[in-house]
Design goal:
alpha+beta, 3-stranded antiparallel sheet, 11 helices, 13-stranded antiparallel sheet, 449 residues, globular, 4 domains
């Protein structure tokens, strides 16, 4: 289960007073400020009202004179309780200044940062390191737990995801024995948590953000807070939140012993889990997953019709032939001949490229992806639907639906992507299929499915 005993002495959700230094290039000055991590994982800053003097003038004038990009300041601070804060990308979004004879010239800036680093002493000493990613958007009914080579990895989330913008879940790895090299363990643990979070994003059909990353060492905790975009939640989960343990186990196992070494797996998952409200965009995203997988994981011999050296010879013959024909046929129009030759040249290499359908079939055969209930005709129709959207900006004609409902094309390609990634991750178990209606089915498909 998620540990809660090794907590820092300081509550980071409360305002902490710091004394430190702010700098930009060669300009630097002492500064007092407060900071905290709010309930969404964002770091908030509060600066005292500052007199506009020569020491602080570089802050005000840099903001006043900057162009379309904010200047990034470095900020260092230390609290009385020993908490340290560091960031090298502090930006000021407002100066909140006032000029007058009574109070003088002052400003009280508003700031934010994309990455902030905290460190603090622990209340309990331990020789077993632990790393935790605090999550947004993960829903779980009970803790998910797996024993692995790095220790015990657990994942937990609320039963009801009332507000996905709040940090309400956690993914944690804790060593079960003292590692010989703590830094090496830390690097591997960080990679493991990142992998599992992304794979579990596939299960949730939404990118699970991790705005807070904590590393608990022997006597202190290091906290990195990342600014995040809005957290989305999908109504089309792949696995039910009550039945995530089998997929969680596959996510962990695929980090240490992947059945298939998938290149650019995380890009595929991000395209799959990208939030979209319209079926046109959903279909494009799902097809982009396939484009990514075949482009990243097929070698040149599989993605081309002729070997490179053979096609090079054929290309020379072809180019000589159409150039001669164009120059003969349209010799009276020099501009037209140049344009035609240029267009033919740009398309020439495409003649040797296998179609996306051919490359998809090659990947399916290579990875042994089960296609029960999915026909070549359905895949081809969905691909043509995607092409209509991309090349003319819409799918449906004014007088009807050309060649099937767009929802059917989308759910078919989505199902195909799910099976490809299940195969690559080594998952075996129940999942939610949306082809022909919402239903719970097994992977690999049952006989006759």
């Amino acid at each position: 289960m998620i540990e809660s005993v090794d907590v820092p002495k300081t509550d980071f959700s409360q305002w902490i007073a710091f004394t430190g230094e702010i700098s930009l290039g060669d300009n630097r000055t002492a500064i007092n400020f407060q900071a905290r991590i709010d309930e969404t994982g964002e770091v908030e800053y509060q600066f005292e009202r500052m007199t506009l003097n020569n020491q602080l003038r570089f802050i005000y004038h840099t903001h006043d004179n900057q162009g379309s990009r904010f200047e990034q300041f470095s900020l260092r601070g230390l609290s009385e309780g020993g908490v340290q804060l560091e960031t090298d990308n502090l930006i000021f979004t407002a100066m909140n200044s006032s000029f007058g004879e009574l109070e003088g010239d002052w400003f009280q800036p508003t700031a934010s940062s994309s990455v902030s680093n905290f460190s603090a002493p622990l209340s309990i000493i331990s020789d077993l390191p632990m790393m935790t990613s605090r999550l947004r958007g993960f829903q779980g009914f009970y803790p998910l737990t797996v024993e692995c080579a790095l220790g015990t990895i657990s994942m937990i989330g609320p039963k009801e995801l009332d507000n996905p913008q709040l940090v309400s879940g956690a993914l944690q790895i804790k060593a079960t024995k003292s590692p010989s090299d703590v830094l090496e363990w830390k690097v591997k643990a960080d990679a493991l948590l990142d992998h599992v979070r992304r794979v579990m994003s596939f299960s949730s059909s939404a990118i699970l953000s991790a705005p807070i990353r904590e590393f608990y060492g022997a006597s202190d905790v290091e906290i990195i807070a990342y600014s995040q975009t809005t957290q989305s939640v999908s109504p089309m989960r792949i696995t039910h939140f009550l039945n995530q343990q089998p997929f969680f186990e596959a996510a962990v196992t695929s980090f240490f012993c992947p059945p298939i070494q998938v290149k650019n797996l995380f890009y595929a998952i991000e395209w799959f889990a990208m939030d979209a409200k319209f079926n046109e965009v959903r279909l494009i995203n799902a097809m982009t997953v396939i484009e990514n997988l075949v482009a990243s994981n097929l070698d040149e011999s599989t993605s081309q019709i002729l070997p490179k050296n053979e096609f090079k010879k054929a290309k020379t013959v072809l180019r000589d032939a159409y150039t001669e024909f164009i120059n003969f046929k349209y010799s009276a129009n020099g501009e037209l001949t140049k344009k035609l030759v240029k267009n033919f040249d740009e398309k020439l290499n495409d003649l040797n490229r296998c179609s996306i359908i051919d490359k998809l079939n090659a990947l399916i055969q290579q990875w042994k992806v089960p296609l029960d209930g999915i026909s070549d005709k359905q895949i081809e129709a969905a691909k043509k639907a995607r092409d209509l959207i991309v090349h003319r900006g819409h799918y449906y004609d004014e007088d009807g639906h050309p060649k099937g409902e767009l929802w059917d094309h989308f759910t078919l390609i989505r199902e195909l992507v799910v099976r490809i990634l299940f195969t690559a991750l080594g998952y075996r178990g129940q999942y939610i299929s949306y082809v022909g209606g919402t239903k719970h089915v097994n992977f690999p498909p049952d006989s006759g499915h």
